[in-house]
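Dear colleague,

Thank you for sharing your sequence with our group. We've completed the structure prediction you requested, and as agreed, I am returning the results in plain text so they can be pasted directly into your records. Please verify that the sequence below matches your submission; if there's any discrepancy, let me know and we will rerun it promptly.
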Amino acid sequence: MVGVLTVVVLAAACDPARPEAGTEATPTPPAPRVTPEVVVPQERSRARVHPRVVTTAAGRNRTRVRRAVRDLRAVRVWRRLTRRLVAVDIHFRPGRARAPADGHLADAYWTAVVEPDLVGGLCSISFYPVAIGADRRRSQRLFERGLAPQPARRPPFWAALLAHELAHCLPGEPGEPTARRWEAKALDRLSKS
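Please find the predicted structure tokens below.
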């Protein structure tokens, strides 16, 4: 212990920064003030952007949304449809009063997103459960009469419907023909998986 104490005292005595006894210490000049560098956020690499999925759905609808997203990812359709999106907002409009009079099943709207570290789009999708149920019942009746092909089972149906709506948010505001192609592509891939 005494040996260690002696080494510490000797080391302190040899410190060139310490003033000698009887001399006045010269103050050390303050370090120059460093101005923080301003970093301008850059657009994220499109290959690395994974859109955030936001949904207010609960219960069965939440399960349907999760499964539809998972199914589209599994058949490699999700990434191509969401390549330029930073978020997908999926919500349900329950009740007959909210169902559109023309019977369509969902709506999709694209909105630009410009945030400090994100540049892309938001695809906002509204599903109308009453219209979806009525359409599925009508399709089943037509199939039973031999007037239409068999309707898709529930999980592929929801994934195909989501693919259809996401296609409306592709660049250039594609219309129904493009959305139907993506819907058919999703159904085809899901039936083979």
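Summary note from our side: The helical segments are 2-13, 59-74, 78-81, 129-144, 154-167, 176-192.

Kind regards,
the structure core
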